[in-house]
Amino acid sequence: MDADAESLRLGPAVAMRLPLPAAAAGRKALVRLLLLASCGAVRVEGIGRLARAPRPAIFALSHHGAWETVLAPATLVALRGGGALRFFVDWMYTELPWIGWLVRRIDPIPVWRKRARFGWKEGLRRAQARRNPLAEAVATLAAGTDVGLYPEGRRNHDSIRLAPLRPGVARLTLATGAPIVPVGVELPARTRLGRPPRVGRIVLRIGEPLPFDDMRVAATAGPVARRSAERRITARVAAVLAELSRKLPAAPGGPRKVPEMSSSFVPRASRAAITVAPVTSSAQRGEAAAVIAEVYRDEKRWIADERRELELDAATGERVIWLLARAGDQPVGVLRLVVDPELALPEGCGLRLEKGVDLVQLGGSGRFADVGRLMVRSAWRRQPAIVLALMRAALETVIERRCTHLLTTVFEDDQHSPYRFHMRQLGFQRIGTFERGELACASRRILLAVDLADAWARLGAGRRAH
After folding, report:
1. Do 147 and 208 fall into the same domain?
2. Does 263 fall in a domain?
3. Strand 146-149 and strand 85-90: pairing?
4. What is the pTM of this model?
5. What region does 49 belong to: left with phi over 0, alpha with psi -120 to 50, or beta?
């Protein structure tokens, strides 16, 4: 397996086996305790990249809430052999019950910017506010100790979009020469809840260490050059962090207030007009490949090379059609159609047909098209209009080809499976199951079929608005 793509779930057994040679007894016990208490909630992707990160390094993480404020540092300390890692932390976190005690144990770098809610604590804050956290971080890196920070500068309640980054991460690397290691923090439940959950599973995606030696040299030309270098470094880190976090980049125009999201809240950026078009140009193929890479390669790990999907299909000519959905100018989903597919599945796939189903007889009942590779980027899955638009475009396409039936295959256990949608909304019928197919997924496959006239009526094709 490619070390860059390796993932590790930090369950209790793994937490107890991790060697922590650089940790003192107290820190070792605390790190193991935190990982054990998480009950395997943390999964880390890109461990090979973490191993390549030199010491000292600057870890830049996306930020959701207090949950990862404790678990992310503990995880990084454990995977760095137990060595010290000092995080920038809002001073209020150090005052919280229980969590504050844990945060203080990791020797944080408090940021004293935010005013206290109570007068007596405001006096404490003002007494400490003269301390310069950036200078403290520079001294920490100079001593050879890693530093971590959340460059969004606050908890980001937007489950779709990254918040604008503050320039502190750029100033640190320019002052010290330490590389920046971007770490995307994803809370998978956000797509279901419409907001970051307070607790739950966490995915930490480690990016490639980013050295900025050339910009550090350029920044010595003067204040204007330094500010330019800071902007370029911040923009580069933001782009990588958005990709690793499975979020959209920050909205243009600087910081904006992001409301607490309820399950019915939909960010304005995601309400853009949805369009679907066949993939015909090289630019469209590149956008389709990016969607496939994000969903099937990086998230699901069902394929190794997204380009191979499109290359293989190009060889089959007009029988294979890829459809690309866009929300405004953003590519958000794809779907693949195969006209006149082979109904006979390969030997050894473990096919079991439902009672009364005969593939030969079924093939004689009309002309078939196979609809598959239906995928929507994670940040857009709360928009059912995307799936509806793709399916409507698919129906229009296959009807133009005079097909009468659709086939599709869905995974039984995948959390994003369209199985229920196909059955309830489109009227697909289950005709069989099989165990093995083209994609590297251990889940059982469910084979579905539908008469197009039924599906067309259910989708309300006469109503074009969505």
Report:
1. yes
2. no
3. parallel
4. 0.55
5. alpha
